[in-house]
Structures are given as structure tokens and as C-alpha cells.
Design brief:
By secondary structure, the chain is of the alpha/beta class. The protein has 11 helices and 20 strands.
Length: 428
């Protein structure tokens, strides 16, 4: 036992090892695009410097009755841009690619930049399929060869261009609405993530009791999808006693995280310093049985480190077996028990082992033992191998060292919520 007032104990919170959670600010705000429906009457901006070709196209369109076309004719790209900036109700652009102030596919690019929501039909004197394909890739909706352009051909090309552009804008609108919803969801998940991390023990609140008891806590906690179903915690249970726990809900994401808040609230409501670990789990199990859906449950281990008696007492609801390290040797403790929420009246038992200065207790989530390494489950044998390696090479097992070795064989990101907490009694 360290003397009263000692300040060597501490809580060590390890930094995130997974890829950084994406901030909502990194998602582009959505701009919801309107739909472009095919009208009964349509104004056509004809950009053509050859008077003869312009006359033929204008005549062909005026002969159509359904829809009716109004033709606005300009001879240069600059005039076309000026018309568009006037706010004219242009419905489609018929664009010659050989203009006095622009030539080739650059003409399409410049027009599209000025009017990104308008359908464009290219007109050219050359029947070149390869060139036509490039024009469509550049942003045009259709392609006309002047010598083959009849009134029906031009009208059909305009209809197709308007319909195709309308479908494109609708897809864009849908995609932008999805982005908007994703942004809202990410804001909510980020807020929930911050709230979940706020449930974790704070170093400043534990400094005095850990120092007085001669305890050190090293912890790593990272949900696999921003928020998750894991949590660990500890509470002072008397002058020389510290209660510690770790639990893991079935499932991942928002649903599991909501259950974390439920169980955390139940612990705060029902836990008392004088209760045995088995009594606490029984109370929590009964409460969760009436709250959780049929397929939901939580595994949990709750222990009490008694520095005055040099003992560790614990009860388990099917958690991964904790690792006790005593005199340089690791051993898995019994963690059998019915997961919380599965039975209306579960029964648990409290077990006790010596816990001396220099001993450590490792609590962890099954993200470690269930990890797939070379096609096989890492398992308890893999975890024990890492612990023994650390003890042999460094003389101690730390969470940071454990995760270094673990992530060397099972690199992040983790597919499950990952929690690892080491409670150690320091030598006086």
C-alpha cells in the first residue's frame, strides 16, 4: 500500500489509432437542383455564323407544331453568352463548332461553363462518329450533321437533348439531396460520438483516488463507426476500493450506442459501493431485460479492486475473459455468465483472487480475439501470445505496447468497437 496522499497513480488515455473520423465540415453542402421538364413551347438559341445554315435550321423548326419553337439566332459565342446573361428563357442551344470566336470542342466547353443547366445540341458539317463521341463526353447532349438535318431530325435531337439533360439534372438533384442527408447524419453522429466519449472517466477526476490507492489505468477506446456499443468505466468504492467495468452491446453503430447510454444510466442509478459485483449484474440484467429488443444483449465484466485487502473481486455476464498478470505471468479469469438482457432473473456469482502490488488486470473487447489474422480468428491464444511477448521483452504489459503488436498483425481500421483497459497496482 502506498501512503495516503501519494500521487503516482494516474489515468492514461491513449490516442485514436483508427483513421480520423470525418468531420461534417468536410462534406460539401448540398445544392438541390430543380427538375427540367419538357415544355409545350421552347426557345432555341441558334449559334451559327453561316446565314444559309441558320436560315435552313430556323425554317425547319418553325414548321414544327408540337412543340412549337421560337428561334433566337446569334453568330458568335460572345453574342450567345450575352443573350444568356440577359436572362432570356432559353430552353436549348444549337451550337455550331466553327464560329468566328471559337472553334472545335472548346466551344462546347465554354458554352457549358456559361450555361451548365442547358441542353446542347452540336451542329457540324462533318460526319465523324469518333468526333461525335468526344463531343458528347465534353458535355453535349446530341450531335447533328448539317447536311442530313431535316425538320424531323432537328426536332428529335432537341427532344432527346432536353430529355437527357433533364434526367441528368434529376440524378444530380438526387445525389445532392443524399449528400445533404449524409451531412445531417454525420453532424448527429459526431454529436453522439462526443457524448459517448464524455461518458468515459476523466483523468482529473481520478487523479486523487488513483494516487491515494497507488493505481494506474491505461485505456484505449475507439468505436468502429464513429459511435458504437462498447464502454468502460470506474468508480471509487471506498477509501481503498475501486470498481471497474467494461461492457459490449450486440450490434454496431447508432442502435448499439443508444443502448450504451441506457446501461450507463442504469449503472449510475443502481450501483452502490457496498454491493457485490454479482448483485450489481443481477440488477442490471433484470432492468435491461425489460428494455432491450429480443435480439439485443450486452456482455459485461464488473470488478472491485480492494487495495486494503489485496484482492480483486469480479462477476461476469459473458464478457471476454480478463487477463490477470501476477508475478510476471498472465492467466485468463473465469468470465462465464448469461449476457445482460437475455433473462428476466439472471444469477451471477462473485469470484475473488489476490491482487497484489505489481499486479495488473486487462479488460478488452472481443474486437481483439475475434479479429481475423491469416484467415483464422486471433483468439485468446493470440492475445496471450502478445502479452507473454511483452512481458518477456519489456518486463511489463501495457495497452500501448499490446496495440502496437496487435495492429502489426491486424491493421486498422477495426471492424468492431475496440476497447482495452489495464488496471495496475503500482509497487510502493
Amino acid at each position: 500500500m502506498l501512503p495516503s496522499g501519494s500521487s503516482v497513480g494516474r489515468l492514461i488515455t491513449l490516442p485514436n489509432r483508427s483513421p480520423e473520423w470525418l468531420s461534417p465540415d468536410e462534406v460539401e453542402p448540398a445544392r438541390v437542383a430543380g427538375q427540367h421538364a419538357f415544355p409545350d413551347a421552347l426557345t432555341v438559341l441558334l449559334v451559327e455564323d453561316d446565314p444559309g445554315d441558320a436560315h435552313l435550321v430556323g425554317y425547319a423548326l418553325k414548321s414544327e407544331r408540337a412543340p412549337s419553337f421560337k428561334v433566337v439566332h446569334v453568330e458568335t459565342l460572345a453574342e450567345a453568352v450575352a443573350r444568356l446573361k440577359e436572362g432570356s428563357e432559353i430552353g436549348v442551344v444549337l451550337l455550331d463548332l466553327s464560329l468566328p470566336d471559337s472553334f472545335g470542342l472548346e466551344t462546347v466547353t465554354r458554352m457549358q461553363a456559361e450555361a451548365p443547366r442547358l441542353p446542347i445540341v452540336i451542329m457540324t458539317g462533318h460526319d465523324d462518329p469518333e468526333f461525335a463521341a468526344k463531343a458528347l463526353e465534353t458535355g453535349a447532349q446530341d450531335y447533328l450533321v448539317k447536311n442530313d438535318a431535316s425538320s424531323r431530325t432537328i426536332s428529335r435531337a432537341i427532344r432527346y437533348a432536353v430529355t437527357r439533360k433533364s434526367a441528368e439534372l434529376e440524378r444530380q438533384s438526387l445525389a445532392e439531396r443524399v449528400v445533404a442527408q449524409q451531412r445531417i447524419l454525420m453532424q448527429e453522429v459526431s454529436a453522439a460520438r462526443a457524448m459517448q466519449f464524455d461518458l468515459l472517466p476523466r483523468a482529473e477526476r481520478l487523479a486523487e483516488p488513483l494516487g491515494r490507492m497507488g493505481l494506474e489505468i491505461e485505456a484505449y477506446f475507439e468505436p468502429s463507426s464513429g459511435i458504437g456499443g462498447d464502454l468502460w468505466g470506474c468508480m471509487e468504492a471506498g477509501a481503498d476500493r475501486m470498481c471497474c467495468y467494461a461492457f459490449d452491446f450486440s450490434g454496431h453503430g447508432i442502435g448499439a450506442a443508444l443502448n450504451v447510454f441506457r446501461l450507463h444510466a442504469l449503472i449510475a442509478e443502481h450501483w452502490r459501493p457496498g454491493l457485490a459485483p454479482s448483485e450489481v449484474l443481477q440488477t442490471l440484467g433484470r432492468a435491461l431485460n425489460g428494455l432491450l429488443r429480443r435480439s439485443q444483449f450486452a456482455t459485461m465484466l464488473l470488478g472491485v479492486i480492494d487495495c486494503g485487502r489485496n484482492e480483486l473481486s469480479w462477476a461476469s455476464a459473458g464478457s471476454p475473459p480478463p487477463v490477470l498478470i501476477s508475478q510476471g505471468q498472465p492467466q485468463f479469469l473465469d468470465s462465464r455468465g448469461v449476457p445482460l438482457g437475455l433473462q428476466a432473473a439472471p444469477v451471477y456469482r462473485t469470484q475473488t483472487v489476490p491482487f497484489l502490488p505489481g499486479d495488473s488486470l486487462l479488460l478488452y473487447s472481443d474486437a481483439i480475439t475475434d479479429a481475423q489474422v491469416a484467415g483464422d480468428s486471433f483468439g485468446e491464444a493470440g492475445l496471450e501470445g502478445l502479452v507473454r511477448r511483452l512481458l518477456a521483452e519489456r518486463g511489463e504489459m501495457t495497452v500501448n505496447g499490446l496495440l502496437d503488436l496487435f495492429h502489426a498483425v491486424a491493421p486498422p481500421p477495426n471492424i468492431d468497437d475496440l476497447t482495452a483497459v489495464r488496471f495496475s497496482r503500482l509497487r510502493g
